[in-house]
Design brief:
The protein has about 300 residues and is mainly α. The longest helix is centred in the N-terminal third of the chain and has 30 residues. The chain starts with 11 loop residues before the first helix and ends with a helix. The N terminus is likely disordered.
Length: about 300
């Protein structure tokens, strides 16, 4: 699932509108969904409630399997797969949280079985995505400290780290209490080692999150700079002559951090950075695919000066 994908929701008005648009009755074609007769509205509402109740019963069964020490790893995996196939729906994600599913998930977020752990972390990320209700529950139930500890596996289990960065981002994005908790647990310190990962995906996800957080919160921007994130990012910067997603993300992060006045750069490092940025601009200014790359490089130069 994409990190920016819109959430679906069981919306009665949407179903009613759909039924009007697809009816074969000419008179109904001219009516708005809100004009449907009471009997049809009740029927559709009942159908939606049945879907929700049915999914909730399935959730209860899945949670019982996950909570039982007698069930197999494969049965637990199937249960997590079932949960994940439904929780992209906002109402069902909230239903799972309300029935206590998060208390089961937090155990699996740090489970020794890596496949179950990765599935659980992705479920957390997808439940929290653009969902204040779930963001609040995950924050209060201390998911962020558990996920931050997973980042220490940057060298041993890259998939767990990728999933954990995704979940952290989903929990704290546009949610001030989550951002506050991220600061409290020193999430900056936990995230920084991911910039040193040899895995491109881990590096890109961590650099992008640093860029996003730094653009939203000056105190986090300063914390990243003071933790040497700017210097680590510079070490990954190359004088490319074509589009490169890693380099674009590096430049994006550098551009947000470079708005801080004290970047802790030596004269030698500053000069080397300026030369690299000038080369990137010169190499790519005619390439439409590199428009953002060039703009980020220009922003950094402007901020340095």
């Amino acid at each position: 699932m994409s990190g920016n994908s819109p959430r679906r929701t069981l919306n009665l008005q949407g179903v009613l509108k759909y039924s009007v648009e697809h009816t074969t009755n000419p008179e109904a074609d001219a009516q708005l969904s809100t004009d449907l007769d009471e009997e049809k509205s009740q029927f559709l509402e009942g159908a939606l409630n049945s879907l929700t109740v049915g999914a909730s019963n399935d959730f209860k069964t899945a949670l019982e399997i996950l909570d039982s020490p007698a069930t197999s790893i494969e049965e637990k995996k199937e249960s997590l797969d079932h949960l994940r196939s439904h929780i992209d729906d906002l109402d069902l994600a909230n239903a799972l949280a309300k029935m206590g599913g998060t208390k089961t998930l937090i155990r699996y977020v740090t489970a020794p079985e890596k496949e179950l752990q990765a599935l659980s972390i992705n479920i957390v990320a997808e439940m929290a995505q653009n969902n204040i209700f779930c963001q609040d529950i995950f924050t209060k139930e201390k998911f962020l400290p558990a996920l931050a500890r997973n980042l220490s596996e940057a060298k041993s289990n890259e998939n767990i780290v990728r999933c954990s960065i995704y979940a952290i981002s989903s929990i704290i994005r546009s949610f001030p209490p989550g951002m506050k908790e991220f600061k409290r647990i020193n999430g900056v310190k936990a995230l920084l080692p991911c910039l040193k990962s040899s895995n491109a995906d881990v590096y890109i996800k961590s650099a992008f999150l640093i860029a996003s957080l730094s653009s939203l919160d000056k105190s986090l921007r300063d914390a990243f700079v003071n933790s040497d994130a700017f210097s680590i990012l510079i070490e990954n910067l190359k004088p490319i002559d074509d589009f490169d997603v890693k380099q674009e993300t590096t430049l994006h992060a550098l551009s947000t951090l470079s708005t801080k006045s004290n970047l802790k750069l030596s004269a030698e490092k500053r000069k080397h950075l300026e030369l690299t940025l000038a080369q990137i601009i010169s190499n790519n200014k005619q390439n439409e695919d590199c428009e953002d790359i060039v703009n980020y490089a220009k922003e950094i130069l402007d901020n340095l000066n």
